[in-house]
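[Primary structure, fold]
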Amino acid sequence: MRTNNRRHFIKTSLTLAAGAALSPALSHAFAKPAVLQFVQEPLKYPFNAFEPYIDALTTEIHYTRHHTAYIKNVNEAIVAEKIPYTTVETFFENAASLSAKARNNGGGAWNHNFFFATLKPGSASVPEGKLKTAIDKAFGSVDRFKEQFAQAAATRFGSGWAWLVNDKGQLKITSTANQDNPLFSSAEVKGIPLLALDVWEHAYYLKYENKRADYIANFWNVVDWDVVAGRLT
C-alpha cells in the first residue's frame, strides 16, 4: 500500500511539473489556503441569563460592543497587513511579529468567544469525573483550586485574564495581561486553555464597580463545568 501511494505521488508530481491541467479535486487540494478570519460566536443564552451574578446590561455591552469591535478590528488588520497565517494557532504562535492592532484584537476576539462559551445560567455546579480528578491532583481540592484561581484573577494588575490550562497533562493556573492568552508565543505559562475569567473592568464595573473580588466570587455560579471538562478531553 505504501509503495502504491508513493508511485501515485510521484506520478502526480510529474504530471504537475509537466503543466498538465488539474482535475477539480486536485485543483482544490493545491489551492491557496484561505486567509484566517475571526468569527463572533453567537451567545447560547439571552443577555439576562446570568442574572444576578452578571447583569444583563453588562453582558449586552460586553458582547455587542467590546467583543464585536475585537472581531471587526482583527479582521481589518489581517487584510490590511496581509497576515499570512491560516489558523488561530499559528496566528498566536507568531504574535510577537504582529502589529499591536492585530495582536490585541486577535486575542480579544478569541478570548471572548472562549469566555462566553464557558457561561451558563443556573445555580452553582461543581467539577465532576476526570476534571475533578485532575483538579484534585494538581491543587489538592476544588476549593483550593478556586482559591488559587481567584488569587490569580484578583492580583492581575490592570486589565487581563485568569486561566486554567492543561500543560501536557498537568493543570496550571496563570494570568495574562490585556488580551493575551496562554496560546501566545510570549505567554509566561503556555498550555491548552480550559477556563478563563475576563477581569477587564468592562466585564464587571457596571454592577460591581471596583469590587473585583465580588465579581470573581460570583463567577463560579455561572461556570459550565461540562464545557470545561470537554476541553480537557
About this structure: The first strand starts at residue 160 and ends at 167. The beta strands are 160-167, 170-177, 192-198. The two ends are 33 Å apart (CA to CA).
